[in-house]
Amino acid sequence: MLKKKLNSILLVDDDEATIYLHKTMIEIVDCAEKIVIAENGEEAIKLLSDKVDGEFLQPSLIFLDINMPRMNGWEFLETYKRMYPHQRAEIIIVMLTTSLNPSDRERAKEFKEVNGFMNKPITIDSLKEILRLYFSDIIQD
To answer: What are phi and psi of 95, to 5 degrees?
Structure first.
């Protein structure tokens, strides 16, 4: 299905079971060289801000939970949009939620940094759809 894998996917979520499930879906689809986990927005900002081996993380895709302790998804986005462009690169952000509140979807539209919004959990089909939608250049038909 893919010509090449994404360099990395960052999962930002505080729920261990959700992280395990989403990591498993990504591994089954085999679409990323590396899967990086952050348990809250603060940890994710640190991962994106700190250089490792002289380079910023710059994942191709971030799956961002809304409700987390310390720094939630909204607070992450407020901080993220103020980061230097070279720390953000061309990152696709998909917000994830278990909330049925339509105001969350509307609020997500206020952030130009947010590319997509979907309910948890990620499935193989929803992950493939995200890849088709945002990474069509690496899809092999």
So the answer is: -80, 140
